[in-house]
Structures
1.
Amino acid sequence: MIFEKIKLLSKSLICLLIINLKILFCKINSKKIIVFCYPNYKLKNISKFYIEDLFNIKKNFKIIYLSTDKNNLNINEIFIYNYLIKYLIKVDLFISNYVCDYFPLTKLKSYIHHDIYDTPLSNLSEEKKLKNRLNKYDHILIPSNNSKTIFEKLKLKKNMEYFEIGYHKLNFLKKKNKKRKTKNYDTIILAPTNFNSFPKLSMYNKIYKIINLLLAKKKYNVVFRPHPSNLNSNIVDRIENKFSKYKNFNIDKSKNYLNTYSNSFLMITDLSGTAYTYSFLTLNPVLFFSISEDVLKKNSYNSLNYFKDRKKIGYIVNHENKLIKLIQKSKFRNSDRLNFIHNNIKKMNINNSKKLFEAYIQKNVLKKDD
């Protein structure tokens, strides 16, 4: 065990040296350096496909991808321990789409937020810690002006700058989805949020009852898609073991949810940010299983657009016995929901995400003086 740790540390130190040599070589050739970091190996694979496409722009910079995942490195990634990142030199932009704790010697640090709505970022007890972590950044790149609300609620430092760049993940998936023609009108997706973040509001409190109820109606196929942070947890393993014997139950642990989302007619979630992504991508409704509206009000979550707009893309249900009736209702076409989705996609600049990001890079990195 100790030998393995020493081996990995040695490998990471060698990688650190290689990266710094690459940076120095690029600087000699007057190229800007952008370092993108995947700080959480559990979440890397659900981001990689659209992040790399986002950076596929006309450029006069060198992009270096860092990964803390020692086991699943892709060909264009370099492994490094988180705490060694601070020894990188002469980086022009350090950027990540999940919050980092270690930063290189850099002029600019940017965080790409990955939620098109003002979905709560963490429970109240963790907000102060999250605020301190986010305050280490200079810029927050938000998918829409709607997303900005949740950061304003945190009351980040006064000189924090926000740049609206659209949501490239949704834009990327929408283009892929247009080529698809199949849809399963019997498939329901269960997509709870990370149960560690909001234990009192998590659908996991009723998950067994909900799954049993849906499976009893054999006309429905149930696809359980756990939050990526919970994939290897005991509770997910127990759910998989308990229900895998049913032919109309599947668990989706794939890197990309496009196939699952596209081949369904409905999502059931609690307060996961994926709710609006799903609805805007598929035009399908969402059932929000609300454990306690009183807890939402107590924490002032009910003032957020995420909760105000739930009925605009679906329905709110607070008891499992009401699910079946609302599922049947959700199959009917709803023109108000479709108009709301289409209007928001236009308003949020979803289709211009790459151009907006390129403009951000051009303004804040490429045109900056050394």
2.
Amino acid sequence: LEDYLVVVYEITKRQPAARVSQIAKRLGVSLPSVTNAMKRLSELGFVNYEKYNMITLTKKGKERAKVKEELQSRFRDFFINVIGLEPAVSDKLARSFSHYVDESV
């Protein structure tokens, strides 16, 4: 769910709201997967979501997404600049690694 949250955050930094199709394309997942994730994130209070409507972050969602995005950025920079991996590989690894590290690091 954190990956979905970060993608919504990235999209809404550039435009007022996100669409299910945009999120699906960015993450390479199906539309029903995004819909299920948005329902769950809405239940948890991280996004404002109603079926067939635009998706926005709540204050709680925005704060959590900022922390996760920063953590992923640090990992991405490490994989690219220290280890020398390609950006695409670094992005995937950074997304995965960020789930296993406490945000206070």
